[in-house]
Design goal:
This protein is of the alpha/beta class. The chain is built from 26 helices and 23 strands. It folds into 5 domains: 2-141, HPT domain (Four Helix Bundle (Hemerythrin (Met), subunit A), Up-down Bundle); 199-300; 306-485, Histidine kinase-like ATPase, C-terminal domain (Heat Shock Protein 90, 2-Layer Sandwich); 490-627, OB fold (Dihydrolipoamide Acetyltransferase, E2P) (Beta Barrel), CATH 2.40.50.180; 640-764, Rossmann fold (3-Layer(aba) Sandwich). The radius of gyration is 36 Å and the shape is extended.
Length: 768
């Protein structure tokens, strides 16, 4: 570690020292608030303040020396029994910890620092005079108190698992972990080094490649087994030939030659058998070695859950005091190993859930007494591994969610009808809490997210390929359960075949899979769906969404993957299910930009590449297809559309015009798709092939002139005939339309049925 520290300046080392010791000070002060006579904690606090004082003196930071020395004297006086640290004194000393951090970052206020030093100095002399009201400025620095130390503000000297001071690892209940040496697997000291996240990502990729390469020996060995079988057949034929020579009385030379061939063939068979045994053993060793290497590399990315919870006890204490509530925070699973990328991203969602519980869920002491509860509420945060996933739980024993009040609020905001709201189950009602902009509170507060709502939690968890659920019992409390992958480097996915190619769909985003009978399909407004429980779920070909060939073989059952959650789910029809796999995630080359409907790639066991589907992007693509009325029906299958007539795309923002034109053209045998504006039309022509495009001019997002120009500038689409149908009947408008590439310009004010049809026939002929 010393070699790595040589890269830092003295001031950076001072910041690192303050960071480590600030954790000790904060945890120790919170523990003393529960047990003010804990001599071990006072000793740790005194040593931490003394260390900061020495470090500040080394770098000539006089303000740090003065404040740390004042705090050290305070702890020494408490050790001697001159006074007992109460909540008000802890408030003041915690503010001192914040000031030490500010000093290390060169952000301290000199005037406020002098005042704070005087206040801390007076604690031992007149502790009763240092009472601080919960809502004074010293107790309302919640944002600073919630996260007194940020890893992002440090030179990352602890990356890769550098040990923290023992007191900094104490749990919220004050229990101390075993000595650092005892936590090492080999019982030795921790020789940590700093490794960049990019290097770790490359190691994960290489370890995954080693696993893939190691599995290639298995099919090679199986091919040799087939050769062995053929060789055995050859030896058998030689035996029959030799027997036949003796039976017919062949000459001695032929008999001798045949016997020699038999001998050498048997030697080859035994030699091949021996080599196969060795190859099988080598394959087993290489496979196990690759698996162990991969596991070790993944383990090197892991950090204990405790790394993200250090600021939570302080934040919960300060917010509770600000709200006038009494709360005990219990944290379980501190040693649970979590991928560093996930650990960095779950801090904000967990912080929001804890604040939400403090502000919304937990009652005041008076309300709890009236409800027959203890005055001190219990707020519990736990982490564990469950079925190959990371499970996080935030639970409180507060007032719970009034489901009927929630139901009325949903109806009042016009989100669902009263009849539908009456049928919503408890879990379905609670799902509304995660919608953007939805809140059960009328007023906006800064404590639980400034009115942003739980949609921030939901979106963050969703970005990590996880899910979040809520449950509540009125009067008993509320719980939020987060299910996340153990690592973002490896994904558990369902492999499916689409258009003859393998694709991976993250299991965490799959609601369910099923074999759907075509007899279960129903139609409504041109869309097909099936019923699951009490919900209608639309179905769409995965090949149509991904713009690849749709499986043509007809079957009475369809493999369907149900994607999405809550009230927005879609059934994706795939060619077949392949099975579940663990895939190492390989990000796509940045030069490709964002590939539509694809998030990353992986390698299968045989080395074949596999694209990983971006479920959120795919659901948006399905919505676009639905909005444009371009969903293929199941009975159509791929290729059948062309047999029934020529395809026309009608693009118009007026639903009346769209439907009139659609009906006119459909009645003449044309197959018609619609788009709601130029942008939607542009997406449609890139995904499907059309014989003709009919477009309006005045449309939102992209007007008709821009739309036509894009088509004519595209190499693949430039030969597609385009007709403009518009209310603009001025000559300059007509001329502009023809200049951008339109093949026909027709005004809505003058055409009748035959005029439009005749223009279509002129451009592409009849439907047949």
């Amino acid at each position: 570690m010393s070699d790595e520290l040589g890269d830092f300046s003295m001031l950076e080392l001072f910041r690192l020292e303050v960071n480590n010791q600030a954790n000790v000070l904060s945890d120790g002060l919170l523990a003393l608030e529960q047990n003010a006579e804990d001599g071990a904690q006072l000793e740790a606090l005194m040593r931490a303040a003394h260390s900061i004082k020495g470090a500040a003196r080394m770098v000539d930071v006089e303000a740090g020396v003065r404040l740390a020395h004042t705090m050290e004297d305070c702890f020494v006086a408490a050790q001697k029994g001159e006074f007992v640290l109460a909540a008000a004194q802890v408030d003041l000393l915690l503010k001192g910890v914040d000031q030490l951090i500010a000093i290390s970052r060169q952000e301290a206020d000199d005037a406020g620092l002098e005042q704070l030093c005087e206040q801390i100095k007076n604690i031992a002399e007149a502790p009763a005079a240092c009472t601080i009201e919960p809502n004074t400025e010293q107790c309302t620095t919640v944002e600073q108190a919630g996260q007194p130390v940020s890893d992002n503000d440090l030179p990352a000297a602890n990356e890769g698992g550098a040990p923290e001071t023992g007191a900094a690892q104490e749990t919220a209940t004050g229990a101390k972990p075993p000595p650092a040496a005892a936590t090492q697997p080999n019982g030795g000291t921790d020789d940590a080094v700093r490794v960049s996240s990019e290097s770790l990502n490359r190691l994960v990729g290489l370890a995954g490649a080693v696993q893939v390469e190691s599995r290639w020996l298995r099919p090679y060995a199986e091919a040799l087994v087939q050769i062995k079988h053929r060789q055995a057949e050859l030896v058998g034929l030689l035996d029959r030939l030799n027997d036949n020579l003796y039976a017919v009385g062949g000459d001695e030379y032929s008999k001798t030659l045949t016997a020699e061939i038999q001998t050498k063939a048997n030697r080859c068979r035994h030699l091949l058998s021996d080599r196969l045994v060795e190859l099988d053993e080598f394959d087993r060793r290489v496979h196990n070695l690759g698996k162990r290497l991969h596991s070790e590399v993944i383990a090197s990315r892991m950090r204990p859950f405790a790394d993200v919870t250090r600021g939570f006890p302080r934040m919960v204490r300060d917010v509770a005091r600000q709200l006038g509530k009494q709360v005990e925070l219990k944290i379980e699973g501190l040693t649970t190993q979590v991928d560093r990328d996930i650990l960095d991203r779950i801090e904000a969602p967990l912080n929001h859930l804890l604040r939400n519980a403090l502000d919304h869920g937990i009652e005041t002491p008076a309300e709890r007494r009236q409800a027959g509860k203890t005055e001190t509420a219990v707020l519990k945060l736990s982490a564990m591994h469950n079925s190959g996933m990371l499970s996080l739980h935030v639970e409180d024993d507060g007032r719970g969610v009034d489901l009927e009040k929630l139901r009325r609020r949903i109806i009042g905001r016009g989100m669902v009808s009263e009849a539908m709201a009456a049928e919503l189950s408890e879990s379905e009602l609670l799902e509304f809490l995660f919608l953007p902009g939805f809140s059960t509170r009328e007023e906006v507060t800064e404590i639980s997210g400034r009115g942003v709502g739980l949609d921030v939690v939901h979106s963050t968890v969703q970005q990590m390929r996880g899910v979040v659920r809520a449950e509540s019992v009125l009067g008993k409390g509320t719980g939020f359960h987060l299910q996340l992958p153990l690592t973002l480097s490896i994904i558990r996915a369902l492999l499916v075949e689409i258009g003859g190619e393998p694709y991976a769909i993250p299991l965490a985003r799959i609601d369910r899979t099923l074999k759907l009978s075509t007899s279960q399909l129903e139609s409504l407004e041109g869309r097909q769906y099936f019923t699951l429980g009490n919900q209608h779920i639309g179905v769409v070909f995965a090949g149509q969404v991904l713009d690849c060939p749709v499986h043509k073989e007809r079957s009475d059952t369809l493999p369907v993957v149900v994607l999405g959650e809550r009230l927005q789910r879609s059934g994706l029809v795939v060619d077949r299910f392949i099975g579940e796999r663990n895939l190492v995630v390989h990000p796509l080359d940045a030069r490709l930009g964002k590939v539509q409907d694809i998030s990353a790639a992986g390698l299968l066991e045989n080395g074949e590449p596999c694209l990983i589907i971006d479920v959120d992007d795919m659901l948006r693509s399905i919505d676009i297809l639905i909005a444009g009325g371009r969903i293929n029906r199941i009975e159509d299958k791929a290729g059948d559309a062309d047999a029934r007539g020529k395809r026309i795309l009608v693009v118009d923002d007026s639903i009346t015009v769209r439907e009139v034109e659609r009906n006119m053209l459909t009645s003449r045998g044309y197959k018609v798709d619609v788009a709601v504006d130029g942008m939607d039309g542009w997406n449609a022509v890139r995904m499907e092939s059309y014989d003709l495009v009919i477009s309006d001019v005045d449309m939102p997002r992209m007007n008709g002139f821009e739309f036509v120009q894009l088509i004519k500038q595209d190499d693949r689409l430039s030969r597609t005939p385009v007709m403009i149908v518009s209310y603009k009947d001025r000559e300059e408008d007509r001329q502009h339309g023809l200049e951008v590439g339109a093949d026909y310009y027709l005004t809505k004010g003058s055409f009748h049925d035959e005029t439009l049809i005749e223009a279509v026939v002129d451009l592409i002929g009849t439907a047949g």
